Amino acid sequence: MTVARRTTDGRADDPRELLCQLLRQFYANGWVSGTGGGICGLDGRDLLVAPTGVHKETIQPPDLFVLDPSTGAVLEPASGSTSRPSECVGVFRAVLRRRGAGAVMHSHALDAVLAADLGDDVLTVRGFEMLKGIRGVANSDEHAVPIIANTAHEADLVSGVERVLEDRRFAQTYAVLVRDHGAYVWGADVWETKKHAEVYHWLFGAARARRS
Amino acid sequence: MTVARRTTDGRADDPRELLCQLLRQFYANGWVSGTGGGICGLDGRDLLVAPTGVHKETIQPPDLFVLDPSTGAVLEPASGSTSRPSECVGVFRAVLRRRGAGAVMHSHALDAVLAADLGDDVLTVRGFEMLKGIRGVANSDEHAVPIIANTAHEADLVSGVERVLEDRRFAQTYAVLVRDHGAYVWGADVWETKKHAEVYHWLFGAARARRS
Amino acid sequence: MTVARRTTDGRADDPRELLCQLLRQFYANGWVSGTGGGICGLDGRDLLVAPTGVHKETIQPPDLFVLDPSTGAVLEPASGSTSRPSECVGVFRAVLRRRGAGAVMHSHALDAVLAADLGDDVLTVRGFEMLKGIRGVANSDEHAVPIIANTAHEADLVSGVERVLEDRRFAQTYAVLVRDHGAYVWGADVWETKKHAEVYHWLFGAARARRS
Amino acid sequence: MTVARRTTDGRADDPRELLCQLLRQFYANGWVSGTGGGICGLDGRDLLVAPTGVHKETIQPPDLFVLDPSTGAVLEPASGSTSRPSECVGVFRAVLRRRGAGAVMHSHALDAVLAADLGDDVLTVRGFEMLKGIRGVANSDEHAVPIIANTAHEADLVSGVERVLEDRRFAQTYAVLVRDHGAYVWGADVWETKKHAEVYHWLFGAARARRS
Hints:
The structure is a homotetramer. By secondary structure, chain A is an alpha+beta fold. Helix content of chain A is 30%, strand content 19%. A nine-stranded mixed beta sheet of chain A has the order 4-3-2-1-5-9-8-7-6, sandwiched between helices. In chain A, α2 (89-99) runs parallel beside α4 (158-166) and α3 (110-116) crosses α5 (190-211). The first copy, chain A, is globular. The first copy, chain A, starts with 14 loop residues before the first helix and ends with a helix. Residues 1-12 of chain A have low confidence and may be disordered. The A-B interface holds A 7-11, 127-130, 133, 138-140, 191, 194-196, 198-199, 202, 205-206, 209-210 and B 30, 33-36, 51, 53-55, 58-60, 63, 78-83, 108, 110, 113-114, 117, 150, 152, 178, 180-182.
């Protein structure tokens, strides 16, 4: 699956422009402040990845790196920049490979951090219509979101992410919470990733509001 | 009553453009995130309805369906799209028919969900000037908003909605809360629906803030 | 004092355009949702007043009424409209007359309503640098904001407002809280009114956050 | 270090335009409402400083003052204005001198005020990935942010700020909290200052959310 050139609402979009537009939206939501967070999306056989250490709302289409999703090698560097691809690449590639995702976003939302405080290694969400916004989930389901421990370096999260992606309890899940840190959310393409990101962040806030 | 072509503030507006503009505003308010929620409005004898499963803030005038409000039949499909009309059509039509509404909006606001948690089958709101923003309501009134149970499918909400619309306790009400889900809000035309939506969401937040 | 044609930051502004721009800003702040709230400002000897019952963020310069501030008579109706001037005119004129204000805004902010819940007939604010944003107030002052009871009709607030404007406890105050309703805030001109509105709303939120 | 003409994401920016753009962003965040707060940045040997008493979101490039950072003398007044440079200049210069900063921002955010309530003379932040957004800090560090007492006049904060800048406990810190008032945040250039401001405000909100 790839970044849809023709979106679900019938309009064509340039995948690079779309990723930058979503980063601006995520910034406005408070999900990628302080240069944190990130996004990647498949464009055919290429993986478009935002650079690291950059104010995410300022990223322009030429600032994106092109990577080989299977090896992680940089096929095309971002233009006129000394930056590197996002440090999330390891986690992004693990999700693409094991879940057949077409895009993955990484959030530093406070709501994600506080939602992870509600559970030990799993956040169980139930009793919300919004659950139907997750592919294959009914509003009567108990939806389990894995919570993994944080690590000193983003790259070291890969083994924890891979472990929960293999865990059958989380077969239906399109998100991983990272304690003290935030969340990774994905979907079949960029638009479903945006949808899932909005749904999961709504659920993170709702779960917390109900418990307090 | 129809989508006013000449609005209360003296300007003409295209009904399709107006509905799309309101969806962008609702999205910014957090009421229709994750492709949730929706809107419909009468344009003469036609009912304009937003499509389902689409990011609501991206909807453009040609993306709207034209339905026959009395039969629910699609008179004109949305252009260049494989999408279907909102799953809220059944509820929308029930409200149009029983209340003579000219427009109905559906919200997935967290404040609506948490307000529904405050009551069993009714949320009673009192002691707010903002009540005067609802047609026919005084700021000294006790205003009763019905709360109905959620269902597995949006279409199955119709009977619950029809039941409360027939209930004399709710004769003055322009909103229905759906537990765990959100709210439906309506008015004589699109502008009154926007006004009522803003007033009810303010009241939902205020009711919760006062009780905690 | 009048709507400054040359603002404190050295730029000229059309008073009508400025009032409309502030209404859009107030709307974005959640202070005038659901057609609530309003604003007025002196333009020389004329009093510019926003219409009632209109979505405040949609108001354009020709939509403003021109009133005689001393009699309240309409000198120029809003163009192409059947609307009436804001129902706040009585309170606006009382503030202009007794305090020599050049502009007054009316807010339906939830923070104002909840701040009024913190006191009986006065909200005492202390211990915030932001107090210095009010003309003549030091950050070590105890600042008293009057709270008056709400009435069935906006026009009936005038006597309550006049009473507290005469009260020596409130000689330093540029705001009146109306229980269950919101606040009136004023200043020497439109820009000071905007400044005072931002300062008082910040203090309303801060007072509540500290007490809980 | 200076305002980067070529930013970290590879684009050139006019330093004056950049400072004004950040003030608009800070205003949207609620950090500089009511004309409060401010910013300064080095442009080569010049120090660009926003004026005092002005609505910060309205500031345009010619409104900035040019100061000599070592003496504080005004080299170029703001054009067409009777305003004075920000009252924060004393604190700004202390931070530039003692920390080699290239820019400093001053915030009146409610989250900063409430975070200062959490400590006596220090706010200790731990257990957040976001700590990595501060230069030289690891996510496993205990990060100490100094809290100083407020003073009647902004200029009188200088000695308190200088004292904590000399304190070895705060060698790693890029922010000072001022009780009842807000925060000063800085960085090597304007972009790092923006980054640090976003990171510290996120941490202020998170520290409070976790304790309650």
